[in-house]
Structures are given as structure tokens and as C-alpha cells.
Amino acid sequence: MQILKNLLKYSLVAFFFTNTILVNACTIFMANDGNNVWIGNNEDEIQSTRYRMWFYPAKNNNYGYAIWTDLNFVIKGISYKNPQGGLNEHGLFIDYTAIDEIPIVKNDQKEDRKKQVATDLLKNCKTVDEALGYLSRFNLIQLNRAQLFIGDATGNYATVTGGYVVKKTENSFALTNYPINNGNKEACHRRDVATHYLNDGTSFQLSDISKILEKAAQKFPYKYTTNVSMAVNLKASTINLYYKHDFTTVATLSLAEELKKGKHHKDIETYFPENITAILEKTYKNNGITTTIEKYKQLRKTSFNEYNFKNNDALNLAISWIDKGETSAALQLLHCLNEFDSTKTAIQTWIGIANRKMNNLEESNKYFAKVLSQHPDDYLATLWGKQEVGKITFKLTEFEAAERVWLVGEFTNGLKNPIKMRKENGYWTCEVTLPKGEKTYRFVVNNSYYVDFKNVLHVGKDENTVSKVYVW
Fold it and tell me: Which regions of 89-144 does DSSP assign to beta strands (E)?
């Protein structure tokens, strides 16, 4: 409670300092190396949002296409009438980014378009130029709070609203949540980091696109997070899906193969193994940690493909128990995870943290030393396990393209005495000497607040969330 009180002391100051708050958003980029034309797309909404893929084969001179929809937002009970984006058999791609309201430019000689345009474009157009020709017939009165991105397999693209059209200016391009007419560019981490990697690349493969998607993703613990990511190869008309910010597991869909199956739909979550957290949490609550570990081992043996054992879901569950003071149970689960993945340094680091919380100093130091001997620059092991006389080393690795970064917290009295971080070897860092105890902090990147995404212990809610670290 005291942490939250201290946070509120400087929250008003923070409001006036930063003009960017994480919101319901989206990131779209085109990566065009002359051979491959890729689209990367992050769908960012509240964490409970569910999504569905819909497939429509060619019919009555219409092209075959797929759309994806948000199942939390429907029109007259039907979500397919409100597509978030789509891809057709000729490699025409459609998606949207939200923006603040803009003035609509109307022409009395044109018809007011009162319904969404994505489906008609996918049915009737092969290229961006054809799509722009189709749209030129209308006053796009519904595109006053969104930018419509259109890309095609030739590498052409355009951004359309009811007030302006911005055409292709460079091979690779990133779009986020501010109007881009008149050459406008605003500070935006997601756009900046995507542009950074797009400009760095000379050729693009799936691994490059997924890396940019991960770098540009909005992450937990914020209210709006990246729920679905797509890496779309426009020439091959394939869609590579990632779910809930897990870039270790990909579901690859061939549009041609899906259209052969006829008209159908499928919820995106069903393309992926199930999150194991719920069943472990329920087992722990009802039967305790011993049964929970037995359940985990049983599921790995009998249901490995049904549940996702490749990502950090189980690890994050153990960390949440540490945060709630259930450290003994967390430690037992961490040791179980380590049995199956003994090379994963994050598991060993959290074993060190859990032991330190339980005052098992020798055991704690053993695990920290093991990680640091193999990976001297490991951030988590450095943050938690290399605290020499209260000296804490903070590192921020997600914001390579940022112009400036500060560290703030209770120990800086919020924004009154921010600590400027320096950039070295592609990350931002600083050292601070702090007294023993639990400390809260976060980073100011350009003009926006961010938690420490590598350290998943947090307190607070939404834009007031802060990270916390224990100084031993």
C-alpha cells in the first residue's frame, strides 16, 4: 500500500510530463527487400480479446480472401461485418491503425461511404492502385478515427483516411497511431523500433519479421497488449500467426490451402497449444504444490502438444507466487521446470531470487554465479544477483531506437531527480546505489513511461504500473 501511496505522489507530475499513454493500438509495417514482400502486424487490445479467422473462396467474379475479426466487437451480433484486416488470393493486404479524430474532406459529387470498405477491396482489387481507384468514388466518412493501410505483392502501399491519402515513398515502411499526412512524424516507440530494424536489413526472412514484431509489441502488464501478431508473405499469400506475445510458437496458414476447404472460420486461439497456467493454478489451489508438480509432469508426458510447454507461462506463474509471498511453492515449481530445461537462465535466476527471499544465501549465490559465469551480461542475474554494497545495475534492452531514457522511482522522488541512462552496446544502462528493501522504478523513454519488461515483478495498474526490485 505504501508503494502505491508513494506512486500517487508523483503521478500528477508524470501526467504533465508525458504526452503519450499506452492505448489500444496497432503496428503495421512493410518489409520489402526486392525479393520478398512482408507485412508485419501487431493487434493490440485488452488482454481478454479473442479473435477469429474467416475464409471466403472466390465466388461470382469475387476474389478469394481471408479476414480476421475481434470477437469482442460485433455488429448486430456478427463479427465478420467488422473486419480488422484481411488478405486476398492476389496478395492484397488490408489493416487499420487507430488515430485521433481528423476532419473529413467531402466532395458533393461522391457518395458517402457509411460501411466498412475492407471486404469490398479484398473481393474486387488485386493491387493498391486498383484499391485507390475503388475508394476514390466515395467520401470515406467512417475513416475519421482510423488509418487504412493497403499493401500488395508488388511492394506498393498506401495509407488512406477520410481526410487524406499518403502513397508509397520508400520500400520499407512502418505505421502506428498518429496521422502521417504532410510528412508528420511523432515520437512513437513502436514505429521507431520497427523503422530501426527495417533500415538495418538488406533482406528479410520470417525470423526478421518476427523479431521486429516482438520488439514493437505492447507487453504485459499494461491494459492494452499485443494479443495477435502476423507475419504475412504477400507473394506467397501465407500468414504466420503468433499468439499472446509468444514468438516461440508459430502457426503458418496458406491462404490457397484454406480457400480449398470452402467457406469456414476458426478462432485464432485454437491454432495454438493451450496456456498451462489455468490448470496448474487450479490444481495448486485445490491440492497443493506436490500435486501441482505431479500434474505438470503428467501433462508433459501425455499432453505435450495440447499445452504450451515452450514459452514462459509456467515460469511466470512461479514468479507470481514469489510476488504473493508463496515463495516455497514457487521454488519447488522452479526446480521442476529446471529439470526439463536446465539451460534456461531465466529459470535459474528466479531460483536464485526465490532462495534469496527465503534467506538461503549460499544456495541463492550458487545459482546467480552459475548464470553469470556462462552469461556475464545476463540482465536479470545482474539486477538481482550482482548487488555489491547496494549498487544496482539497470539495463533497458527494448528501446534501441529511443532518443533519450531516464530511470525514475521512489529513490528519485519521481521526476524531480531523474537518472539519465547512457547508451552502450545497443542498450541503455545506469548504476544506482540504494538502501536495502523493496524499491519501485520505471523508465521514461522519450516522453513515455515504461516498466522493466525483463523484470516481471510489478505493482500498480495500467499507466501507473511500476517495476519492483529487492535490494539485499
Answer: 93-98, 111-112, 138-139
Terminal-to-terminal C-alpha distance of the chain: 21
Full DSSP string of 80-93: GGSEEEEEETT--E
Confidence category of residue 77, pLDDT binned at 50, 70, 90: low
* pLDDT at residue 50 greater than cutoff 70: yes
Contact 441, 467 (CB under 8 A): yes
Q: Could you tell me the three cell numbers for 155?
A: 511492394
How far out from the chain centre does Cα 423 lie?
Answer: 23
State the CB neighbour count (10 A cutoff) for residue 268.
Answer: 22
Long-range Cβ contacts of 31-35 (<8 Å, 24+ apart): 31/172, 31/198, 31/201, 31/204, 31/208, 31/209, 31/212, 32/155, 32/171, 32/172, 32/204, 33/171, 33/201, 33/202, 33/203, 33/204, 34/171, 35/203
Provide DSSP, 251-313: EEEEHHHHHHT-SEEEEGGGGSPBPSHHHHHHHHHHH-HHHHHHHHHHHHHH-TTTB--SSSH
Asked whether the predicted pLDDT for residue 205 surpasses 70, the reply is yes
Question: Is the CB of residue 161 less than 8 Å from the CB of residue 178?
Answer: no
